[in-house]
Design brief:
The chain is an alpha/beta fold. It contains 17 helices and 17 strands.
């Protein structure tokens, strides 16, 4: 009896020890998903695990985040009825792409695999592996853990496997940087619907052109070392015998041999599973001293490799015209495309799958039931990436169950065109804007299609109200002469950007969430929309995913 009690205590101790270990590891391991990370692979991996072999997935996309941002499988399905999935993730190494394909072929049998070639040129970096296997179930880690361990010498590979399977090994000292967000329990019951795509809604123009990028790249590639030295007043000039310092070019177009070997392994893996591997490059520009540029020299190197390996290559920057506008279609100055750019790239692949690869429509239940949430999010993305006041008001006029707040700051009149004034009146506002001066105040509230209050004055304006759902608000407008201020306070929080011109906040009466906060500088010549907060879309998306789950969709 006494021995039985000892064993019982040992079992209980081990169970509690295991629970404690799991809890500590969960807290110390970074969470690669919203709200702790704007974009990351966890949702993609969780959604991929729900795919069923009966799903007719005709194409897979793998590679780095440029692909993750640019290719939208739900749009392809909606437009063409062709089910695809995007397995891309930030800085995804090529052997991680190969490992993910091994997992994928256990679940689905695509006809085509598109690989984004950016990481052909890169060496080992541990972080992108962690973003993946930290988010994977224990049972699915084997291929990726093996790929990760191959980057280490033999004597360190056991440590690498431990690192992959037990993240606490990597993050055991992270307790020093923990914050309250690491202790939040994120709601798991969500209908994950994006099929691996991440949609960015920032509009940040590139500061370099394709031609300038290539001009600098060519100069860096062909650069010859020279140095002038004055030694005791005597000039000595040193000219390098080969490009660059120490014989190394400032622009490196070398592809590691191990990456080419992995590419050939991916080709063989695809062929063994009845699929064709196709290389692709998403449009991307930057100054070539940064890794996120794509000069023609790199494209030509990939073309040569593709020809040697007998693989198709689609360079969407140089060889196909996808009509990308690097002034409006990028999320971060040219590295990643935004929602507007994604529409163009996805349209290319939709046409390519249909017309070149002859993919036929095939009903997919999971994709079909996700179309309503996809359309709802796209509608908000359309609004959030509308850049000019008149089309913004036109887009917003079709929205129901929203309250729209207007508040002017500084001056809204100097360059408010007659067309913009008419658009404001067409939206339902009654003010005769021709009578306002450059430093006047203006505010208005339109709820569920009805203007409930509107005022203009040469004095400071403050209006307190309450929406039909009982939420209180206070709107303040102050022209330049009296201090230049805009406030749109909803339930105690100020959502106005407080920028010169017209500040607009869109509040959803159903979800109780702010959908958009934007300003148009109608004082200046360039009246493009300005936004400083981009989390509203993510919060609305989270709300819709939870609502779907409550209604039994996607669970």
């Amino acid at each position: 009896m006494k021995k039985r009690h000892i064993w019982l205590r040992v079992v209980v101790f081990c169970l509690w020890g295991g629970v404690l270990f799991a809890v500590v590891q969960e807290v110390l391991t970074p969470d690669w998903r919203y709200p702790k990370m704007d974009f990351g692979p966890e949702y993609m991996l969780r959604e991929f695990e729900t795919l069923d072999s009966k799903d007719d997935i005709q194409a897979l996309f793998v590679g780095v985040s440029t692909s993750e941002f640019s290719i939208d499988p739900m749009r392809i399905y909606e437009d063409a009825g062709v089910a695809t999935f995007n397995l891309s993730s930030p800085n995804q190494p090529i052997n991680a792409s190969s490992a993910l394909l091994k997992l994928a072929f256990e679940k689905v049998k695509p006809k085509y695999v598109f690989y984004e070639v950016s990481t052909l040129f890169t060496g080992f970096d541990a972080a992108p592996y962690h973003w993946l296997f930290d988010s994977m179930t224990l049972a699915s880690k084997a291929p990726l853990a093996s790929a990760y361990a191959q980057n280490y010498p033999k004597e360190k590979r056991v440590d690498a496997f431990i690192d992959a399977y037990f993240p606490i090994y990597q993050y055991h000292e992270r307790w020093k940087e923990l914050s309250k967000v690491d202790f939040q329990i994120l709601q798991e019951e969500k209908n994950l619907y994006r099929k691996g795509n991440y949609s960015g809604i920032k509009v940040e123009a590139a500061t370099v052109t394709v031609d300038l990028m290539n001009e600098i790249a060519d100069a860096n590639y062909n650069n010859t070392l020279w140095k002038n030295e004055y030694i005791k007043g005597t000039l000595q000039t040193v000219i390098g015998e080969s490009p660059g310092a120490n014989g190394k070019r400032l622009l490196n177009t070398d592809v590691p041999e191990r990456n080419i070997d992995t590419l050939l392994e991916m080709k063989t893996l695809c062929e063994e599973n009845g699929a064709e591997l196709i290389l692709m490059k998403i449009p991307q520009i930057n100054y070539p001293q940064y890794d996120s540029s794509w000069p023609r020299l790199c494209s030509d190197r990939v073309k040569a490799i593709a020809e040697e390996c007998g693989i198709r290559y689609l360079d969407l920057l140089y060889d196909f015209d996808c009509a990308i506008d690097f002034g409006t279609d990028t999320n971060d100055g040219g590295t990643h495309l935004n929602y507007l750019g994604s529409i163009r790239i996805t349209s290319f692949f939709t046409t390519y799958l249909q017309n070149i690869l002859s993919c036929s429509p095939a009903y997919c239940e999971d994709y079909d039931e996700d179309l309503p949430i996809f359309d709802a999010v796209c509608r908000l993305e359309d609004l959030s990436t509308t850049l000019d006041l008149i089309p913004y008001l036109e887009e917003l006029s079709g929205w129901e169950d929203v309250t729209v707040f207007f508040s002017a700051s500084d001056d809204m009149m100097l360059n408010l065109s007659p067309e913009s004034r008419q658009a404001l009146n067409d939206f339902g506002l009654q003010t005769d804007f021709d009578t306002l001066s450059y430093n006047d105040s203006f505010l208005a509230i339109k709820e569920n299609g009805q203007v409930v209050y509107e005022a203009s004055s040469n004095q400071r304006l403050v209006y307190n109200g309450q929406m039909r759902n009982g939420i209180p608000y206070t709107v303040t407008s102050c022209g330049w002469r009296l201090g230049s201020e805009s406030k749109i306070i909803i339930n105690g929080s100020n959502y106005s950007q407080n920028s010169r011109g017209i500040n607009i906040v869109v509040y959803d009466n159903v979800s109780g969430l702010v959908l958009d906060r934007v300003s148009f500088d109608t004082y200046a010549g360039n009246q493009r929309a300005e936004r400083t907060v981009y989390t509203d879309l993510r919060e609305y998306e989270e709300y819709l995913m939870r609502l779907d789950a409550e209604n039994g969709i996607g669970v």
